[in-house]
Amino acid sequence: MPGFLAEKLYSAENRWVHTALKAAYATGVPPTVLILPDRKDSTKWTKIDKLLLLAWQTYQDDLCKKCGVPLWLGHSEDPHIDFELKETVCYSCQHIETSKKESPPGGTKYVIPTPVEIEGEETRLPSREEGFKTSQ
Question: Which parts of 42-134 are beta strand (E)?
């Protein structure tokens, strides 16, 4: 049964469940408390809660630890499977990597996002929703 549920986690329409399962796993809360709006008792673990966490672990275990592709696809010799390489850039990481300044011993470089000032305009960083619309 966990394998069947894990399979459902790969579906695009079920990606929202990942956040609930990660939060449940991290906090020890039964997953259905976060998934089902009518579930009130956060102390009782149901059979479904246990199966959901087993499915989440199965899903995680089935991913290549290096690239994140499901193992059955990444390791398949099926000639009908191809792989398309995509690339994304975290401009914050890029800024750190291209910095010429050396950190002092024990120091850590970090970045603080700041809005670009435009004369005569109010500037602010985009909201999460606005930012995802323009990200890669």
Answer: none
User: Do the beta carbons of residue 73 and residue 27 sit within 8 Å?
Assistant: no
Residue 59 and residue 9: Cα distance in Å, rounded?
A: 7
What is the pTM assigned to this prediction?
0.68
Q: In order along the chain (136 residues), what is the average pLDDT of each group of 10 residues?
A: 78 89 93 90 91 92 92 89 90 90 88 86 83 76
Q: From the CB of residue 5, how many other CB atoms can be counted at a distance below 10 Å? A: 19
19-51 residues labelled b (16+ CB within 10 A) or e (exposed): ebbeebeeeebbbbbbbeeebeeeeebeeebee
Count of CB atoms within 10 A of residue 55's CB?
Answer: 22
17 vs 34: CA distance, rounded Å: 9
